[in-house]
Design brief:
The protein is of the alpha/beta class.
Length: 97
């Protein structure tokens, strides 16, 4: 079953988004780190990845790039606390909003 994967370092934010999406009937799984998100992607069929830009030594774009290798049709959204035109352009190259 396809699901939405949320990877965010703030567990409260991830839980809030997961609750809202679950209430709308979407199956959701969450992770709080790059490594946990990578493992979660490997064990699921993601329809959508929502990832925070800030994930420790890596960032959400790295997770999108890795996820696209296994799931080229996966939709992706990167979330950042501030606008970063360079990151937005880089994310666009990988089909992420």
């Amino acid at each position: 079953m396809q699901r939405i994967v949320i990877v965010h370092a703030d567990p409260r934010t991830a839980a809030h988004w997961a609750a809202a999406l679950s209430q709308e009937g979407y199956p959701v799984a969450t992770a709080a780190s790059f490594d946990d998100g990578k493992a979660l992607l490997a064990g699921t069929l993601p329809a959508l990845l929502i990832a925070s830009v800030r994930l420790g030594a890596y960032n959400g774009l790295h997770l999108v790039i890795r996820g696209r290798l296994d799931y080229p049709h996966m939709a992706a959204i990167l979330v950042s606390e501030r606008s970063d035109p360079a990151l937005e352009a880089e994310a666009g190259k990988y089909g992420a909003a």
